[in-house]
Write a structure and sequence with these properties.
alpha+beta, 42% helix, 32% strand
């Protein structure tokens, strides 16, 4: 490996690591804001475990939960598919996602946290979830790897 290759690898690690950490911080901020939102009762309309193939030759699998729910504010009915901030993140372990799908099964009543200034924005879970923590972990691993490489050069 040339010094130029090492430099480019370090730049990539820094960009990826910082992007993941910034994404984590944005989700953290959104989650903290939603803790202060108003709540109402809702009903789960759809609940499913999603599986996607990824990686080399699609041999790896990642999982996500898909939850759709409905709620009413001031006589107007809203629906949403956002279970929590960062619910677009998929993970390789299905156990957490299966737990979410089971917790929010079809027809079940749920507590909906909604933004009083914009009631169409809502979530069911107002805490950071394992997929979101993976963003922080992998971001720190990238930055740590960059620091380690810098000590070798």
């Amino acid at each position: 490996m040339t010094m130029e290759d090492i430099f480019l690898a370090r730049i990539c690690l820094q960009i990826i690591g910082m992007s993941m950490i910034l994404c984590f911080l944005f989700i953290y901020y959104q989650t903290r804001k939603s803790e202060r939102w108003l709540t109402t009762k809702g009903k789960v309309l759809f609940s499913s475990l999603s599986q996607s193939n990824t990686g080399y030759e699609n041999k790896s699998k990642v999982y996500n939960s898909i939850i759709e729910y409905q709620y009413e504010i001031d006589g107007k009915i809203y629906s949403s598919k956002r279970a929590y901030h960062g619910d677009w993140l998929a993970i390789s372990s299905s156990s957490y996602m299966k737990k979410i799908v089971k917790q929010y099964s079809i027809g079940k009543e749920c507590i909906v946290h909604y933004n009083p200034q914009n009631p169409q924005k809502s979530v069911l879970i107002v805490k950071l979830t394992p997929p979101v923590f993976y963003l922080l972990l992998f971001g720190l691993v990238c930055i740590g790897t960059d620091i380690f490489i810098s000590t070798l050069v």
